[in-house]
Design a protein that fits this description.
Layout: H1 11-32, H2 48-76, H3 82-107, H4 115-161, E1 165-169, E2 176-180, E3 184-190, E4 193-200, E5 203-210, H5 213-219, E6 225-229, E7 232-235, E8 239-243, E9 248-252, E10 259-261, H6 266-276
Antiparallel strand pairs: 1-2, 3-4, 3-7, 4-5, 6-7, 8-9, 9-10
Helix pairs in contact: 1-2, 1-4, 2-3, 3-4
């Protein structure tokens, strides 16, 4: 099965990676003061000047990562694979280490400018930056897998309930309709009657039964059927899209015009959609 790494190319991932790495690196230097940073103050006194230098390092780190992720990567990675992601991560560590090494020497009047020092610097920076980079990757990877799993579960649930029978029983002798969840679409109040819109022989059909909509909705035991308006009940199985806001609307399969959700039903419909359709 092909693994999905699409999250790796999203702007939110690139931005999170850049910010997380820059913050982590600054806090690491501030707390542990490795790599000779404590030479700035042997007593580890956090002066404003010291914090200012570390802030500059953070800004340089963030700028390099943003340029690398948003500008450079698009030229070198056309198709995402795990091998290319690993290769790009190695390049990122190298570029970041080199940039910080140059900045470190620039503010220090090039006192430690040599190939051996650069190699050691890059290795040290890689050792530190690998933690936020891996953390960001696995966090987004987990979210991606969790979303995919929820979608699979939702699809299985839909498939499982599509043949479930629902019984609409009116107050008249012949007011009965037994159909599957997959066939019922919505119901509309017509005074003391309810007009049931459903599929029959691949055609949209309307069946009128004598019963108030409020009474009928209370009788429904399926989680898929919910009242969304004083005049409508809908089958969430057929919801293909939703508009949220001051006016909430449901778009149903086979129906051209959306059905409006009254404000008192917004929260209940929204929560039910999350349960049965994995809508967010």
């Amino acid at each position: 099965m092909q693994t999905d790494y699409s999250f790796y190319d999203r702007p939110i991932y690139k931005l999170t990676l850049s910010i997380a790495t820059a913050l982590f690196f600054m806090l690491f230097l501030l707390i542990f003061q490795p790599f000779g940073v404590n030479n700035y103050s042997s007593k580890r006194i956090f002066t404003l000047e010291f914090i200012g230098v570390l802030s500059e390092v953070m800004i340089v780190t963030l700028a390099v990562l943003l340029i690398n992720e948003f500008l450079l990567r698009r030229w070198f990675i056309k198709k995402l694979t795990l091998g290319k992601i690993i290769g790009w991560s190695i390049w990122t560590c190298f570029l970041l280490g080199l940039a910080i090494f140059l900045f470190y020497n620039w503010i220090g009047n090039w006192h430690d400018f040599s190939i051996s020092s650069a190699a050691e610097f890059i290795m040290d920076i890689t050792t530190v930056s690998i933690f936020p980079m891996l953390g960001t990757f696995f966090y987004f990877r987990y979210k991606n897998l969790h979303k995919a799993f929820q979608q699979v579960v939702s699809n299985k649930q839909e498939h499982a309930v599509q043949d479930q029978l629902i019984h609409f029983e009116g107050q008249g002798i012949n007011d009965n309709l037994m159909i599957t969840i997959a066939d019922f679409i919505y119901g509309k109040a017509q005074d003391n009657y309810v007009e049931l819109v459903h599929r029959k022989n691949d055609k949209i059909t309307k069946t009128l039964i004598r019963i108030p909509l409020s009474v009928l909705s209370e009788k429904m035991s399926s989680k898929m059927i919910i009242k969304c308006h004083r005049s409508f009940i809908v089958n969430l199985y057929h919801v293909r899209a939703i508009i949220k806001g001051s006016e909430m609307k449901l778009f149903l399969n086979y129906i051209d015009n959306p059905i409006r959700v009254s404000k008192p039903y917004h929260q209940e419909v929204d929560e039910r959609l999350k349960q049965v359709k994995n809508f967010n």
